[in-house]
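Checklist before submission:
- one chain only
- standard amino acids only
- sequence pasted in full

Submission:
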Amino acid sequence: MGRHGKRYQAAVATLDREQLYSPEEALRLVKDAASAKFDETVELAVRLGVDARAGEQMVRGTVTLPHGTGKSPRVAAFARGEAAQQAEEAGADVVGAEDLVAKIEGGWKDFDVLVAAREMMRVVGRLGKRLGPRMPNPKAGTVGEDIAAIIRDLKGGRVQFRMDRSGVVQSAIGKASYEPEKLTENFGTLIGAILRARPAAAKGQYLRKIAVSSTMGPSVPVDPSSAQALAESM
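Returned file contents:
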């Protein structure tokens, strides 16, 4: 196992491992600990009180962060004709139809998000097994009639979140260079979306554990009750 550097160790020394911090304080600590030579990404991780094995308890959705993530996603769009032109004008990085399907079947992965015009799903469907959760999906807001609007939303700060097999949702919420207020607003917005996505079958405490961290910094635990209160106040 690799050893952490001096900067990381110094950041860890500032944390009280027995304390659950308010979102505002946790994000301040994350900003203070971000000392890399590049602008580190700030990420949120939430462990949910759901049965990750039960399909009806899957937690997923989309939300537009008020201040974006600090990164414009690479968007590949399945479209043809007028829809393809609209996708290009909206800022899609790659646009194609059967040719794009073949490119992905050949192993191409240079994208962050795949979107599709609704009429293209008959063509895209054969990629289901290969793409898994990255497959365009109406529930994730990546399939629709107005593909240009979908792309503009993604480029403007909309993020997709999806629970993994261990019941954890992870997502970027900004950059370490962001002002604390902007990180806090993005944090509360995402927590609010996760709360709204709570499955009806979920029992007991829903937000089990929450942590925030930067790319090279330590994880800072957040008080779930404080996080929920912040989200509900927005």
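Reviewer check: DSSP finds nine helices and ten strands in the chain.
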